Amino acid sequence: MTESNPKKALYIIVNIGFADEIAEIMRKEGAGGATIMNARGSGPMPKSILGITIDTEKEIILSVVDEEMSEKIIHAVRQKAGLGTPCNSICFTMPVDKFVMTHVSEPSNEPTK
Q1: What is the pLDDT averaged over residues 6-30?
Q2: How large is the average pLDDT for residues 54-61?
Q3: Domains in the chain: boundaries
């Protein structure tokens, strides 16, 4: 990618039920959107500590943003929803080699030939 501001795939993994909170943090930092996926951790089986059940169900928030934006978002997530919070988020980025915007046009009422 020869772009002056390379794109990053920003992944944020959170405890289930917190993806909307993270998406809102991302929007406030200027991200245009994100994809939220359900996931399950493969770590230890759920256990109870002090009456609180720790579950392996997770959500993954994925967004393609420029490098500067990814740093802003990671900083905001760490401050507001990082490790030690109920959200317990983990963030990481990966380089994006190619990024193509696609556009689906509205269906036409004109007859096809």
Answers
A1: 95
A2: 84
A3: 26-56+66-85
